[in-house]
Design goal:
Distance between the termini: 45 Å
Helix content: 55-70%
Number of helices: 20
Number of strands: 0
Largest sheet: none
Order of helices and strands: HHHHHHHHHHHHHHHHHHHH
């Protein structure tokens, strides 16, 4: 089973890379080449059918491979960590050197970086305004977002600005540098997980499966080029700073460092504040530790937003009530009179449900590791938000897989995998959306996946998570009751 898992995951990533290398298509946005610089691609003009079916198959095969690998580790499979790390490096490099696959978001990042490099605010100037000036990077701006200013944090804008400065007005080179930042973050997380899990061969193998060679995360972070990988990596190292050598050793200085890193992660993507809230829950009984954590976060966030300006605050805060995903589970209520996708009522329901689920999960989630007590509440809060928010995207789940790798093996693994697969399927092919796909049967298939299959599976997953919280049957091996939380354990851990 271990051999089958690695073969399936390798084939999945190879298929993604092949689609990207074929050049512009229904899954790969078109922009000018920067040869001899990456990204490198042909102009094969593959059909929408080939592209869509290949990527759907890649997600299904990759998800199955990930699941098989997790089962194999549970049954005693212990692959050599060096081989998994090498496989991750190869996959990251391959996906870094091709155009974005399955999303146009990275082109928005490139445009926002170009706006900043030209001395304007990407929180005020829109891609369409840049495009109207005849700018070569602005010409590559995707239509769906061309009237929207940036909704990303100031540090995300800083990485985009740096990429633009290094690219001399080339959209392709800007995309390459943005992917390079993602690649560095992805591999840093690979090495960080390996170091923390080094003393336990089973945990080490599972951590690499959940992140290093996970095709679903490689698709979201590296093939798609989403900035969520950068924020997830910074948040992970915030938690790791409290566990040097894989042992829980907090101190005021480490709490301050964790706060600085969490502030940086939140200044990339605002929802990572939930990880900070999770750490705050762990340290709530120590005023000194809580103060150090909060001071560290403010020391990063306040200067970032003071420099970016009030428009950045409004743009990032407004994103919390942005347009919902076509496959978000709340679609089942849109037939109720007065409820429609994008309505404020849906956002309120989502926020209310997130709070309730967070309370339940903080009380009923399985016990976490004594070495990483901060991972459990952080995961509880992030997962509660991801399950209930109307603004769902598969790359948002990059925040939970590293946290999950710090938890013991439970059925939460299957919750994460079962969420990631249908969400990825619903986003593909990613550049041409289902109303515009041809032939007709392909459009109909994509519509069923996006508006029926994915929402249905995500609802089932949410209900399964709630059932696990109520029943406490987190342990897949023997169904033993794991309802007791680590809150008491966390309270007994020294926070000094």
């Amino acid at each position: 089973m271990g051999w089958a898992a690695t073969t399936a995951m390798g084939a999945s990533v190879a298929a993604m890379a092949a689609i990207g290398a074929l050049g512009p298509s229904a899954a790969v946005p078109a922009f000018g080449s920067a040869a001899p610089w990456p990204p490198w691609f042909a102009t094969a003009d593959p059909s929408p059918t080939l592209v869509s079916v290949t990527l759907w198959a890649a997600v299904l095969v990759g998800g199955a491979g990930l699941g098989a690998g997790l089962v194999a580790v549970r049954w005693g499979w212990r692959p050599r960590p060096g081989r998994l790390i090498a496989g991750s490096v190869i996959a990251v490099l391959a996906l870094m050197l091709i155009p974005p696959v399955g999303s146009t978001d990275i082109l928005d990042y490139a445009v926002y970086g170009r706006i900043a490099a030209l001395g304007h605010s990407p929180y005020q100037m829109t891609p369409l305004q840049l495009k109207s000036t005849g700018d070569p990077v602005g010409a590559a701006a995707p239509t769906p977002w061309d009237t929207d200013p940036s909704v990303y944090g100031p540090l995300a804008t800083a990485t985009e600005w740096t990429a633009a400065e290094l690219s001399a007005g080339s959209a392709a080179r800007t995309v390459f540098w943005l992917k390079a930042w993602n690649g560095l973050a992805y591999l840093a997380l690979v090495l960080g997980l390996d170091r923390l899990a080094r003393s336990d061969s089973a945990r080490r193998a599972r951590a690499h499966l959940l992140w290093s060679v996970n095709p679903l995360m490689l698709l979201a972070v590296m093939a798609g080029g989403h900035v969520d990988g950068l924020s997830a990596a910074i948040a992970f190292f915030a938690l790791a700073s409290l566990c040097p050598g894989g042992v829980w050793r907090p101190s005021p200085r480490r709490w301050l460092l964790a706060g600085l890193l969490l502030g940086a992660a939140s200044a990339v993507k605002a929802p990572l504040l939930l990880v900070g809230a999770g750490l705050g829950w762990v340290t709530r009984r120590s005023t000194r530790a809580l103060a150090a954590l909060g001071l560290g976060m403010l020391a990063v966030l306040l200067p970032c937003y003071l420099v970016a300006g009030w428009s950045a605050v409004k743009a990032v805060a407004g994103r919390a009530a942005g347009s919902p995903a076509v496959y978000e589970p709340w679609r089942v209520l849109t037939g109720v009179p007065g409820l429609h996708p994008g309505d404020a009522s849906i956002d309120v329901l989502g926020a209310f449900a997130a709070v309730i689920l967070a309370v339940i999960m903080l009380r009923r989630m399985p016990q976490g590791s004594a070495s990483y007590p901060s991972a459990r509440p952080a995961l509880a809060l992030m997962l509660a938000w991801l399950v209930t928010t109307p603004q769902q995207r598969p790359w948002y789940d990059a925040a939970i897989f590293p946290l999950l790798a710090l938890m013991p093996t439970t059925r939460l693994d299957w919750i994460a995998v079962a969420r990631a697969v249908p969400a990825a399927l619903a986003e593909l092919p990613g550049v041409t959306y289902y109303p515009d796909l041809h032939p007709g049967w392909l459009s109909a298939t994509a519509k069923v996946i996006s508006t029926r299959l994915a929402p249905g599976v995500l609802i089932v997953v949410a209900l399964a998570l709630l059932w696990l919280c109520v029943s406490g049957r987190w342990n897949a091996a023997n169904g033993s009751d794991s309802r007791s939380s680590t809150l008491a354990d966390a309270g007994r851990v020294s926070l000094q």
